[in-house]
Amino acid sequence: MKSHAPDPALLFKAETLAEALPYLQRYAGATFVVKYGGHAMGDADAAEDFAEDVVLLKHVGINPIVVHGGGPQIGAALKAQGIESRFVNGLRVTDKATMKVAEMVLSGAINKEIVSWIAAEGGRAVGISGKDGRLVTVRKVQSEDDLGFVGEPDDIDTRILDTISKAGMIPVVAPIGVGPDGETYNINADTMAGALAIATGAERLFLLTDVAGVLDKDKNLLSDLTPVEIAQLRVEGVITGGMIPKLETCIDAVEGGVDAAVILDGRVPHAMLIEIFTKEGAGTLVRLA
Ligand SMILES: Nc1ncnc2c1ncn2[C@@H]1O[C@H](COP(=O)(O)OP(=O)(O)O)[C@@H](O)[C@H]1O
Ligand SMILES: CC(=O)N[C@@H](CCC(=O)OP(=O)(O)O)C(=O)O
């Protein structure tokens, strides 16, 4: 197990711990929702750094809530079983057989793996999905093509999250919800994280992915964006693919009361701490203005 003593020189760009202290204490009591994407879960070192960061946040009085993805891992498991996957607007068409595999991968494998990483760093995590404690009740996503068991959060009951956080533990949530009649639904992990950030009154939403943040047409990092600027980038065709729903989630979050949403590279060591505790920051920060 690594030491949790923060290295002020490395992490906080401060000369002394005293200089770093105001940064550390600034967010005490706040809730941060951290979405760890399937693409960001690269190697073991990245996972260890991620878990270490989450544990450190808890140590300094922040309530981290982890929401994880697992798209590539679900894809691999489906392929191994000879089940074809199809996406419509970035959402996986989910029939009963696909849902079974997705739940096995998300709730059974990835969720518990993240709980183990956090335990290895000295933290206490509780792995759940949106079904537990009826955390997330969904409505079926309506689309021209029937997407099957794909849901979007309709009603969120945060009591289970509050209970876990207040007990000094870290909730780790798989992007699965319960339908009105108790059926299991697949939810896009970004959407799930955004909805939980709004429902918990989170101060920050972090979306950890596999790029440095939002890049402009010359591939330079855009460090700050407003919803108006995002709309402009979409018109210019600079934002495509998976970045579109990601930024829509950020806009929904900040319009829903989250102070800022940040897209950053989960493969970079301690990217989240650098963003939170240094003046330079990391990734792309989305704010209302
Ligand atoms: N302007 C842009 N800046 C950065 N990434 C972009 C941009 N436009 C599209 N992308 C794509 O969005 C991807 C991130 O979305 P996605 O693959 O859905 O992430 P995740 O699996 O982590 O949720 C990047 O890897 C990149 O290929
Ligand atoms: C409905 C839907 O598409 N659900 C996603 C849930 C996982 C996810 O979103 O994972 P990433 O963040 O790693 O992409 C899926 O089945 O892939």
UniProtKB/TrEMBL annotation:
Family statement: Belongs to the acetylglutamate kinase family. ArgB subfamily.
Enumerate the UniProt keywords alphabetically: Amino-acid biosynthesis, Arginine biosynthesis, ATP-binding, Cytoplasm, Kinase, Nucleotide-binding, Transferase
Q: Show where the Aspartate/glutamate/uridylate kinase domain sits.
A: 31-264
Task performed by this protein: Catalyzes the ATP-dependent phosphorylation of N-acetyl-L-glutamate.
Q: Where in the cell is it found?
A: Cytoplasm
- Site (Transition state stabilizer) at 35, 246
Q: Where does substrate bind?
A: 70-71, 92, 186
Which pathway does the UniProt entry assign to this protein? Amino-acid biosynthesis; L-arginine biosynthesis; N(2)-acetyl-L-ornithine from L-glutamate: step 2/4
Name the top EC class.
transferase
**Record EC number:** 2.7.2.8
Q: InterPro entries given for it?
A: AceGlu_kinase-like_sf, AcgluKinase_fam, ArgB, Asp/Glu/Uridylate_kinase, Glu/AcGlu_kinase, NAGK-C
Main localization of the protein described in the UniProt heading: cytoplasm
| Name assigned to this protein | Acetylglutamate kinase
A GO molecular function annotation here is: acetylglutamate kinase activity
Q: Which reaction does it catalyse?
A: N-acetyl-L-glutamate + ATP = N-acetyl-L-glutamyl 5-phosphate + ADP
PANTHER family under this entry? Answer: N-ACETYLGLUTAMATE SYNTHASE (PTHR23342), N-ACETYLGLUTAMATE SYNTHASE, MITOCHONDRIAL (PTHR23342:SF0)
Protein's gene: argB
> Native species of this protein?
Sphingomonas vulcanisoli
Identify the SUPFAM superfamilies for this entry: Carbamate kinase-like
Pfam families for the chain: AA_kinase (PF00696)
